[in-house]
Design goal:
The complex is a heterodimer of chains A (559) and B (238).
Chain A (H helix, E strand, L loop, with lengths): L2 H11 L10 E4 L12 H6 L1 H4 L14 H16 L8 H5 L6 H13 L21 E4 L13 H12 L12 H5 L22 E3 L5 E3 H6 L1 H10 L3 E3 L11 H14 L3 H8 L4 H10 L3 H11 L1 H18 L5 H21 L4 H13 L1 H13 L3 H18 L1 H13 L7 H20 L5 H97 L4 H14 L2
Antiparallel strand pairs in A: 1-2, 3-4, 3-5
Helix pairs in contact in A: 1-7, 4-6, 11-12, 15-17, 16-22, 17-18, 18-21, 18-22, 19-20, 19-22, 20-22, 21-22
Chain B lengths: L11 E4 L9 E9 L2 E9 L6 H13 L6 H20 L2 E4 L3 E10 L2 E10 L7 H11 L7 H29 L6 H9 L6 H5 L18 E4 L2 H13 L1
Antiparallel strand pairs in B: 1-4, 2-3, 5-6, 6-7
The chains are: A mainly alpha (559), B alpha+beta (238).
GO molecular function, one term (chain A): DNA binding
GO cellular component, one term (chain A): nucleus
InterPro entries (chain A): Homeodomain-like_sf, SANT/Myb, SANT_dom, SMARCC_C, SWIRM, WH-like_DNA-bd_sf
């Protein structure tokens, strides 16, 4: 009667793809039992319902296979409402209409075969000993108890080793009853000990069932077994890259976004189990993520503006000697590009926002974003955008032209690619660090700084251009799609109207036909009247009433 | 599924007997001699020779330390009831399914049992003793006298219904020429029976409605000894 044995039997029998159903234990000798059929054993044991030898009352109203099944199913279901409790005949008979003797016989049969009261704990002296083996069988009929959580089975399978054999969930349990509340800010809950995993190290079994490291150790004897059926993933709080998002995590993410706006560090802290990039990626993936982010951005617009000004300041600091005009110019360009993008496409909106806000905290991440953006389109487009931005910069500022000339000499051999951009970006980062450290820059170095600053601007411009190009592409696509849809709508409408016209034509035809037939009928009627009248005149004097009627009829039909 | 004709239940006739597996007659004795009262209820096999009754009466009186004056009274009572039973025995009894509600309202020592359930009069396999035993087991009734008392109570009711049916049949036979017998004989006895169509027809359900459960549920009360004594006294006054 140990659930471990039951679990083992079930894992062998039940197809794994099936949704988890309740498991009930019945003795192996009663494995013939089926909800949708009546077995030969039943027929032989209770001939009253089925006729045959000793079936005295068969064929009467209250004894037939249908009634038998109703009785049987009710009793078994009643027992399964609470398998741990012994079901008594007295309890059953109050709910069943029928001969008490017959019901008792049926009850005794079910009891003897272990279909009821098999797992009941409160045993009577008459309680039978469990058989050598047990098969597990899930009901198809009425289910009174809710489905246990998916992890219940895993728990049963693995928990058989640690806990005592009689592990049993109380009825009407929910996930939180058993595994505790998983509140935000806590570590994941271990499926074994039900405690919070404080060290942040958990192992996830294949069904998303988390086990903390301590339990893992204690369970190491079972581990080989567990390894067979489950893929164990070491998860530390830093390395979540491959793990999927659970509903709880997504909820936390949304909460965090609502609470902290686009401060991704705080959001990451809120979610805890995922890192920043994952959070961002997840929010973008969500069907309504953009919308949400858009709203938040709208709200925190003012903050964003201040950020921009600080951005300008930092820019100013970096490019010490560069004229303030050029800084403004770059900012203006950024904004221009942004406006372009906003006009053309909404889809690219969040990514652009993100790029800008992340540029505030780390320059390297900006570069990464740029690189990412540039890889989104073909290298030709990138090259074109870069060339355009370089040209524009050169036109605005002759100093910049010089700087770019210098750079071109340096990188003459290499072609312009997205990798290249990143490389140069790294360069820029290093040089910046140097610049921060050095206090007295000499002439040449200064020139280099200027050149790198322009380089950054060129890169930004490139990215914006690329984004715009992509946006334009997408807009075109959308437009085409819209046109297509519109055309199809119009076509459908036209077809509808055509159908209508056709229908009306048919109707008209029918009406015409009907009109004709009516006319014919009228004529024939007239003729008949005529003959009748003629006859009447020939035979003798007609009745006056008839005459009046005919006159009336004639009067009416003539006009 | 095979449809079962509800209107024509299979029936056969047997010589009159108790409609249970064991043909045991319920006997109730209630006699009073010289201010002493003897009340008892038990079952008796009508096949046993009459000499057994005498032995039984003598033995009971001896064991209960009753005066010898009780013995003839007991004999009279028991033999009278057996004779009544035997008077029916020669007659034909129709065996067909008829499900009747039986009611139990008993007080044995200080246990009160109230119950109602359905019983098929036509089921010659029924076993009131077994039923009573199950009931006592299920409800944890410890008093050993309760079970037999319930069984006897069931038997008494079955006996009454069976004898009524037989009398009705005899009457019907006598007036067969004038009236439609079936109708006359059934109308009275069937009054109480369960409507078969309602529950066992293809549209009915044998699962009783939840709100009716309490009607068919046994209720057991254990009253203190003093109260039981008071009730006893009241009954004796009647």
């Amino acid at each position: 009667m140990s659930p471990a044995a039951a679990g083992a039997a079930s894992s062998g029998e039940a197809p794994p793809s099936r949704p988890p159903r309740e498991l009930y234990t019945i003795p192996a000798s009663s494995g013939w039992f089926r909800w949708d059929d009546i077995h030969e054993t039943e027929r032989q044991a209770l001939p009253d319902f089925f006729g045959g030898a000793g079936g005295t009352g068969f064929g009467t109203a209250s004894r037939n296979p249908r009634i038998y099944r109703e009785y049987r199913d009710y009793i078994i279901n009643k027992y399964r409402e609470d398998p741990a409790r012994r079901l008594t005949f007295t309890e059953v008979r109050k709910a069943l209409v029928g001969d008490a003797t017959l019901l008792r016989k049926l009850f005794g049969f079910l009891d003897a075969f272990g279909l009821i009261n098999f797992s009941a704990t409160s045993s009577r002296p008459a309680a039978q000993q469990p058989g050598p083996g047990a098969v597990v069988e899930a009901p198809l009929g009425l289910q009174v108890t809710p489905r246990p959580p998916a992890s219940y089975f895993a728990e049963e399978r693995l928990g058989g080793g640690t806990g005592d054999g009689a592990f049993r969930l109380p009825q009407l349990t929910s996930y939180t009853d058993v595994f505790g509340e998983w509140a935000p800010g806590k570590g994941p809950i271990c499926g074994f000990c039900g405690e919070e995993c404080k060290d942040g190290k958990v192992e996830t079994l294949k069904d998303g069932f988390k086990v903390c490291s301590t339990c893992c150790k204690t369970n190491s004897t079972n581990k080989e077994e567990a390894n067979k059926c489950s893929i164990v993933k070491k998860e530390s709080s830093d390395n979540h890259a491959s793990s999927a998002w659970t509903d709880a995590e997504t909820l936390l993410l949304l909460e965090g976004v609502l609470k902290h706006g686009d401060d991704w560090d705080l959001i990451t802290q809120h979610v805890r189990t995922k890192n920043k990039t994952e959070c961002i990626a997840r929010l973008i993936q969500l069907p309504f993520g953009e919308h949400m982010l858009g709203n938040i951005n709208g709200k925190s617009d003012s903050r964003f503006q201040t950020n921009q000004t600080t951005d300008g300041k930092t820019n100013h600091f970096i490019v010490k000697d560069a004229s303030s005009q050029s800084t403004d110019m770059v900012d203006g360009m950024q904004i221009d590009g942004e406006e372009d993008g906003a006009d053309k496409l909404v889809e690219d909106h969040p990514s652009k926002r993100r790029r800008l806000c992340s540029s505030i905290d780390v320059t390297s991440s900006l570069m990464e974003q740029l690189a990412l953006l540039t890889t989104a389109v073909s290298p030709d487009v990138v090259a074109a955008a870069a060339a355009a931005s370089v040209k524009a910069l050169g036109n605005e500022n002759p100093q910049a032209k010089k700087a770019f000339h210098f750079i071109e000499k340096e990188y003459q051999v290499k072609s312009f690619s997205s990798n290249h951009v990143q490389e140069s970006d790294c360069n820029v980062g290093n040089k910046e660090a140097e610049m921060h450290g050095q206090t007295v820059p000499d002439e040449k170095m200064e020139k280099k700084f200027i050149s790198t600053a322009y380089q950054v601007r060129a890169a930004v411009g490139t990215a914006v251009g690329v984004a715009a190009a992509r946006a334009k592409m997408l807009v075109d696509q959308e437009e085409r799609e819209m046109e297509l849809l519109m055309a199809s709508i119009i076509e459908t409408q036209l077809r509808k109207i055509q159908y209508k016209i056709k229908h009306f034509d048919e109707l008209e035809l029918i009406m015409d036909q009907e009109y004709n037939t009516i006319q014919q009928i009228k004529e024939s009627l007239m003729k008949e009247w005529q003959t009748v009248l003629e006859r009447a005149f020939q035979t003798g004097a007609p009745l006056q009433r008839d005459e009046v009627l005919t006159r009336l009829f004639l009067d009416r039909s003539t006009p | 599924m095979k449809t079962v004709s509800l209107g024509a239940p299979r029936s056969s006739t047997v010589k009159f007997r108790m409609p249970t597996r064991d043909n045991l007659v319920p006997i109730r004795v209630d006699i009073e001699v010289d201010g002493q009262r003897y009340r008892d209820a038990f079952t008796w096999n009508p096949r046993d020779p009459d000499s057994e009754v005498i032995t039984f009466a003598k033995r009971t009186a001896k064991e209960l330390k009753l005066p010898a004056t009780f013995v003839p009274q007991m004999l009279h009572s028991i033999q009278g009831q057996l004779a009544e039973f035997r008077s029916y025995e020669g007659q034909e009894m129709q065996v067909k399914e008829k499900i009747m509600p039986l009611k139990i309202d008993l007080r044995v020592n200080n246990t009160i049992v109230r119950d109602q359930f359905l019983w098929d009069i036509g089921n010659l396999e029924s076993d009131p003793e077994e039923f009573a035993r199950t009931l006592c087991d299920d409800l944890n009734i410890t008093d050993p006298e309760v079970g037999p008392a319930i069984a006897v109570c069931i038997r008494e009711q079955l006996y009454e219904i069976a004898s009524q049916t037989v009398s009705a049949m005899r009457e019907a036979k006598m007036s067969k020429k004038r009236r439609a017998p079936e109708f006359a004989s059934n109308s009275k006895a069937m009054n109480n029976a369960v409507d078969m169509f309602k529950y066992f027809g293809s549209k009915g359900s044998v699962i009783r409605k939840r709100k009716e459960w309490y009607l068919y549920e046994p209720v057991v009360d254990v009253v203190p000894k003093e109260e039981a004594a008071v009730v006893d006294a009241k009954e004796q006054l009647k």
